[in-house]
Design goal:
Blueprint (H helix, E strand, L loop, with lengths): L7 E3 L1 H7 L4 E4 L3 H5 L7 E2 L9 H10 L2 E4 L4 H12 L5 E3 L2 H7 L18 H22 L5 H17 L3 H7 L8 H12 L2
Parallel strand pairs: 1-5, 2-3, 2-4, 4-5
Helix pairs in contact: 3-9, 6-7, 6-8
């Protein structure tokens, strides 16, 4: 597709002032969303954005869209994808982390069946650290070749930093606790259609 313009970046103050007029799409995992999200945000995880294109296009036709995630990287990717499909968006500088750091409220579902989970960044750090330790311990106790596991994880982290992508986050995002229930996604899509 053609070169799409970079998404507009809103600071937390700008977003807070305009929140009542924005449709906020949170592209984090359901567990991250449950741990706290911008008021009125609709949860459409990044890997479901393509499925939600008609509903997002409908919402964008009725007002401005703000796409958010934990730090801004996933929302930037979502904004680029949406721009490729002719849907103008803005992203929140620093994501929900910056929003909370500025003292703005994060909403949490009242339902007790929704578990607050670890952020994707925390899940990646935990998994990478566990695999590195496992490779080192197995390399000492079983066979030195297991140290290649640690080296592979280290190389993956360097590649992730250089390309601003994270293959491990993609894999972890497919685990059951990070996937939206069909009913939750359908509710989010209906909310976008209603905007």
């Amino acid at each position: 597709m053609s070169n799409s313009p970079a998404p507009t970046v809103l600071g937390t103050g700008q977003a807070h002032t305009r929140l009542h007029e924005l449709t906020v799409v949170d592209v984090r995992t359901p567990a991250e969303y449950a741990s706290g999200h911008l008021p009125g945000a609709v949860n459409v995880p990044l890997d479901h954005i393509r499925r939600a294109l008609p509903e997002i296009r409908h919402a964008a036709g009725r007002g401005d869209l703000l796409v958010v995630c934990a730090s801004g990287a996933r929302s930037e990717n979502a904004c680029k994808l949406l721009a490729e499909h002719g849907i103008p968006t803005a992203t929140l500088a620093g994501g929900t982390g910056a929003w909370a750091a500025e003292g703005h409220d994060l909403h949490r579902p009242a339902a007790c069946d929704t578990r607050a989970g670890w952020s994707m960044e925390r899940q990646v750090r935990f998994t990478a650290g566990t695999l590195v330790l496992l490779g080192l311990v197995l390399g000492l106790l079983v066979h030195p070749a297991f140290q290649f596991l640690s080296a592979g994880i280290a190389a993956g982290l360097v590649f992730s930093a250089l390309t601003n992508t994270c293959g491990m986050a993609v894999v972890l995002g497919r685990l059951p606790h990070n996937r939206p229930r069909a009913a939750d996604l359908d509710t989010a899509l209906a909310a976008l259609r209603g905007r």
